[in-house]
Amino acid sequence: MNRRATQGEPFPLPIDNRPLKLAPGMQGLLRCPVCHARLELSPTVAVCQRATCATRYPIIEGVPVLIHEANSIFTLADFTERRTTFFNLAPSWRSQLLDRISPSINRNVKSKANYRRLTELLLSDSPAPRVLVLGGSVLGVGMEALLERPAIALIESDISFGPRTALICDGHDIPLEDGSVDAVIAQAVLEHVVDPYRVVEEMHRVLRPGGLVYAETPFMQQMHGGRYDFVRFSYWGHRRLFRRFAEVDSGVVCGPGMALAWSYTYFLLSFVRARWARHAVRLFASLTSFFWKYFDGFLVDRPGALKAASGYFFLGRRSDTILSDHELVRGYKPELTEA
């Protein structure tokens, strides 16, 4: 824990007078992640306005770094010193070359349609919706539908710097005012947080009444993201995670074909250790399995896909009622999962 920063003492900052990446209308929503008080923003530092807290947070290249260090696996120094957090900001040329020449084994079958639906729901609820994106350093698959509507304002946050990062924060303590956004998006995020239940509670807190949540979370995917890979959810486990939300829609987003390609790839990788060999195996595996994902266009809506999916989505609305475990279990229908 960086005691100097959390006690309000000065910490070294680069001279940087560039404007904040967050739109002016979004800056007023920011709150101290420690005590939820308002922040005073300058080009290089954000200061909590509660005298008993007075925590100082760095602003780096226009990006506020609002981390509650006592509750997070990250520190302010991780960002002021530009350490690698989740994404490797300087990948090797070999890794970059491999990414360019290897066909992808991934396919988010439902993402584009789901984001179009989310966009329409948002604009039917509000003429100027505000959307928090967790894991928003890069544009998620299908999110173009949101960008095409200028009325929708995005707060793109992440735990890593990236081309779209406008706010550094930890989802366990979202630094926004209660009830301040119309939607929260977490695409391929919740498997990478220590306590997904806490993160979903925070999503519920910052949403307005009836606000929307959209999440995509893996089920059958091997470990990825290095040390930051913690959990997986079945379809029913994913529904329980969002038990404080009324379901609008849910189902398979990445199908059995993609799950099979991942398993095959990691099966082959288990035979080798040397870095060059792993690169070669990844290339071979992708060349010999990438086409399996195309079966998912046919399989994704079939009942058996719920048991064999690579990942699920959930679209819901903030609710004041909680789905009980009894209701969850009673809602199980064998015919939904029988092949």
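the 2nd protein, sequnce then structure:
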Amino acid sequence: MVRGYRVVFKAPGVVKVESFDVIPPSRHQVLIRNILTLISPGTEIAFLMALPNTPRKFPMYPGYSSVGIIEEIGEDVKEFKRGDLVVATAPHASHVVVHADNVYKVPEGVDVKDAVFFTLSCIALQGVRKARIELGESVAVIGEGIVGQLATQLARLSGAIPVIGLDLYNTRLKIAQRLGADVVLNPSRSDFMREFLRVTDGEGAKVVIEATGNPQAINLALKLASHRGRVILLGSTRGKSTVNFYSDVHKKGLIIIGAHNSIRPKYESYEAYWTFKDDLKVVFRLLKSKRLKVRELLSDIIPFTETPEAYRRLREEKERYITIALDWRKA
């Protein structure tokens, strides 16, 4: 029996790496030996710390972005073979057994360090699609963490101008500007609102994408949107928000759109609502063509044995770290 290693949240705030027996795949599954897995900081740290709107059930096995090599295939799996480089929506582990429907080949020319961003890129893309951005519309993205950074780039690719990145950490704003934001602003500055109105011609943004998951940011998003604007709730809020719907929504004629990744259609794409598989094809094309730039968003790659330290850095040093990949090659 092959022994593998995996990340486990034992209790609130407690991260461990444990060994486990690797089981063979069933007839519709494949066994993947992971190369890298990418931490999704917002969701995973919220789950780790048992914040509101999370399961709060432990032990928990986090992660949903892995890239690796297929080692074994089930007897009914025809679309893959041993040795294929693939991505999967699977947990942080050295080995994962996954249904073939949740596994996708990595196209030739896409590096593993880029491919591992596939899930978070698709999450950002479905949010930007729901905004239905028209060429020339102004878009503000609140929160330049990993999903916000991706949404900022995708908004620009969708024709938004200006694209305005907002964050409390200046290091993140600098990265956003290097990767395509036309304007970056820190909401903590005393002149923030004046500058925001200046760059949006006094109107506010036609589209505001909230990507922080902070309940308090909802009110900021509503305030920054123009009359008849759209507010896209891309971040998963961890708590309750108090909103004056008359002044902030009703009177302004706002459209608020929930953009959780789980509301995708499963089998067939339609306008603004694409399947994960169809979005992934687009993401791979964007990565291969370098139109979507993710390498600068990868703050570090560390051995899986140092996983607790990775979560500590992402939780306590947000100004330095956007996301971290775990390296499983020596497992």
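The chain has ten helices and 15 strands. The longest strand covers residues 29-38.
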